[in-house]
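DM between two lab members

TW: hey, do you still have the Ricin B lectin domain-containing protein entry open?
JB: yeah, one sec
JB: this one, 142 aa:
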Amino acid sequence: MALNIASGNRYIIVNTKSQTVMDLSGSDGVSVIGFPKHGQANQQWELVFAETGWHIKSVSSGKYLQVAGGHQGGSRIVATNVPFIWYIWADNAEVTSARISVPGCSCDIDLSEGGSVAPCTPVQLWDRAEGARNQVWRFEKV
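TW: and the structure you got?
JB:
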């Protein structure tokens, strides 16, 4: 079985290392964090295919995943009103899960602190590391 995603569908995006999910922080509506799964709208993301990649849009706010600052390791992932293009591609080791990367950059979305299970762990951009499961995400259709 391969990566199975489709434009217009809603997903909960689960980190394969921590099993926490990509969550739009309820405290500021901007920060994207790892958080235990509860399935509410702030943990649901709509994928929208664009010409060269994907927009990832929050169901709760209508904001898009974006990189705060430059496209380099350590930059925070946030939600903004500006659509941003992401590449989503099957991981080499876990082909039913994905890496989410910035076009033209060998950086992937990464759950920081090595994929910590702690609630509110920052989601960030980091240099791609093969075998790093904290950079691999499973898309669970809502």
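TW: got it. The chain has a mean pLDDT of 97. The chain has one domain: 10-141.
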